[in-house]
């Protein structure tokens, strides 16, 4: 089983509009970060996580034109505003994409993007909505789900279990309690939010994420959702062994 990091930036991406690279070296291609999304796949099943505003370019770069399902972690713009690009996946497959989200997220998406799920003015629905339960099976991948605090809302933390590996994904959270630590423990690979070094009210800062990785002991950890203060080369030089900064297009094998 493997995961492809489609995008590992924040809601503003890197660089920010205005050519704002912050502390990131603009000559390092791995500092160019689109909005956050991943694909997890086995030999027979492919699951997209979130539909970022950069989804079209991300799927083109990864040469992906088919998915078996999409899972939304939550309804913030940087995680769902590329939802229209599911239309082309519908055209390729000829059937609506199977879409999963927790109840509050699903209600928000089906209200805001009703035409995606119900069609409109002769245009067909391009996604079929499903409630994301605590455990759901897509093809040959079992997906475990846990709710994580993200400011005033929650976001879905995900654990993908295949015949030959386990991959975790945790983005947009502000804390991990003991239940969450147990949920993410013992993974082959954990892709996890590390927004910046300074504390943030709704995202984990680097020290919080490193402490969680130490407790969960994945075989490898990949940082994502990083802002323009998180220079790739500096992180590579300073992170503990087994932990690397993600970059757009990175393929992680479980």
TrEMBL record:
This is MBL fold metallo-hydrolase. Gene3D superfamilies: Ribonuclease Z/Hydroxyacylglutathione hydrolase-like (3.60.15.10). GO terms for molecular function: hydrolase activity. Pfam families: Lactamase_B_2 (PF12706). The lineage of its organism: Bacteria, Pseudomonadati, Pseudomonadota, Alphaproteobacteria, Sphingomonadales. Keywords: Hydrolase. It comes from the Bacteria. CDD domains: metallo-hydrolase-like_MBL-fold. The keyword Nucleotide-binding does not apply. The keyword Isomerase does not apply. Residues 34-225 form the Metallo-beta-lactamase domain.
């Amino acid at each position: 089983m493997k995961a492809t990091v489609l995008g590992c930036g924040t809601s503003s991406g890197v660089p920010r509009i205005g050519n704002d690279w912050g502390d990131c070296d603009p000559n390092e291609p791995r500092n160019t970060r689109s909005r956050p999304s991943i694909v997890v796949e086995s030999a027979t099943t492919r699951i997209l996580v979130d539909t970022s505003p950069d989804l079209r370019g991300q799927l083109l770069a990864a040469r992906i034109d088919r998915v078996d399902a999409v899972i939304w972690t939550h309804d913030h713009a940087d995680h769902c505003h590329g939802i229209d690009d599911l239309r082309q996946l519908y055209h390729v497959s000829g059937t609506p994409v199977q879409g999963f989200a927790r109840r509050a997220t699903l209600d928000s998406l089906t209200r805001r993007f009703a035409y995606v799920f119900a069609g409109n003015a002769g245009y067909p629905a391009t996604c079929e909505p499903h409630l994301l339960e605590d455990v759901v099976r897509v093809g040959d991948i079992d997906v475990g789900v846990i709710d994580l605090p993200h400011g005033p809302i929650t976001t879905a933390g995900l654990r993908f279990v295949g015949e030959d590996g386990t991959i975790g994904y945790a983005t947009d959270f502000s804390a991990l309690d003991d239940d969450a630590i147990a949920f993410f423990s013992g993974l082959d690979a954990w892709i996890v939010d590390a927004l910046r070094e300074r504390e943030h009210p709704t995202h984990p800062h680097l020290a919080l994420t490193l402490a969680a990785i130490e407790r969960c002991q994945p075989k490898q950890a990949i940082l994502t959702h990083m802002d323009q203060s998180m220079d790739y080369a500096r992180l590579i030089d300073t992170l503990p062994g087994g932990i690397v900064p993600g970059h757009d297009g990175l393929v992680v094998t479980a």
